[in-house]
TrEMBL record:
Residues 263-354 form the Rhodanese domain. Residues 36-122, 135-214 form the Cytochrome c domain. Gene3D superfamilies: Cytochrome c-like domain, Rhodanese-like domain. This is Cytochrome c, diheme subunit of cytochrome bc complex peta. GO terms for molecular function: electron transfer activity; heme binding; metal ion binding.
Amino acid sequence: MRQTAPARCFAALLLLALLAPLPALAQDPPPLLTPEQSEAAAARYQQYCALCHGPDRAGHANDHAPSLKSASLIATGTPVVIGEAIAYGRPGTPMGAYHVEMGGPLTRQEIRELAFWLLTMAPADPIPVADRVEGDIALGAGVYAQHCASCHGAQGEGGTGTALGNATMLALTPDGFLRYAIENGREGTPMVAFKDVLSPAQIDGVTAFLRSRSAGWEVPEPKRHTPPPLDAYVINPDAAAPSFTLTDGMYVSAAELDRELKARKRMVLLDTRVTSMWERAHIEGAVPGPYYASREEVMANLPTDGTWIVAYCECPRAAAESVVRRLREAGVQNTAVLWEGIQGWVSLGYPVVQGEAAKATR
Ligand code: HEC
Ligand code: HEC
């Protein structure tokens, strides 16, 4: 089903609102940032993004995060397309929403500066892309199954490649941006150029097929959740400690965590993802302790009496491990990382509680 015109229109309006004070949208070259803005954006990149996209923006440091410096992305990704991806994330993937209104840590201005900074760091002449691409959907479905599903997932759910069936991505990305990536690949990544493999009609077809899978997108309602007060950080504060057997001295399995939670043992569950993800859904009792917070900020909220602290993140361990390593360096005892991550936890059928923002569709 194609996304309805009003829905696309609404999304477009919302994006304009999000990036409203931009003097020029679309294909104009990005205005230069002041040196101070550029420095601040570079620092924010290292704090919030480098964990997955790599300190050098080459991608694939963790969680199959894409390159943010490939010429084809930079040439076709406008400040709006890049800014929207940062603001709204890709729900259901490790890419969270960073906009404060979505429960994330960054203001609109900070996101705008990050988007401009990414574009100016890897200069490429902007290439205008079409909003819509017409093509033979049935032909495209066959192409997808044969050439794309192995990396992008049979249902476009993602794998080593990005989630091409993601409703938020499809709503916020012009067809021509996708088509250009398929035709020219993403240099320096596993995404090869398909222009020598597929005919133009096949590339149009697979682009149209992706668009046809778009199920519409409801703009998630921006609603803040207040984290629990500090004295409520410990689950079952008067109970006994859990008995965990850690694999590699670090990991606890979902089955074991579930068992100890059901036995009502005393512990802290630390959700190390970007806070907007905690707001959408989290394991019951988990409190936010995002990977980008300083060790002091995270520790300020944690008991130091040997209470077990189990950290988890999306998919499956990068953010949680970085937090637990920092806690251990500071001498915090009894820490562990959930091996399966919350995606694994959910797919094994263990429960999560939905936040208000979780009502938004994927
Ligand atoms: C926990 C890992 C993680 C972190 C941290 C993270 N990202 Fe991502 N990001 C991803 C993944 C994974 C994707 C691809 C999602 C998908 O399947 O579509 C992605 C996608 C993107 C995209 C879309 C790129 C494209 O080719 O369409 C942009 C832009 C982006 N991230 C920017 C950022 C910025 C800027 C930050 C820091 C504010 C950030 N990300 C933090 C994992 C992460
Ligand atoms: C070998 C694995 C692999 C195959 C096969 C593959 N891709 Fe990709 N694709 C990737 C990876 C990895 C990325 C992310 C690259 C990056 O780091 O920017 C990607 C990125 C993309 C993007 C850009 C998404 C975005 O948000 O920027 C599109 C569109 C895409 N692929 C479409 C396709 C289509 C259509 C096919 C089949 C014709 C295909 N890919 C085949 C691995 C693959």
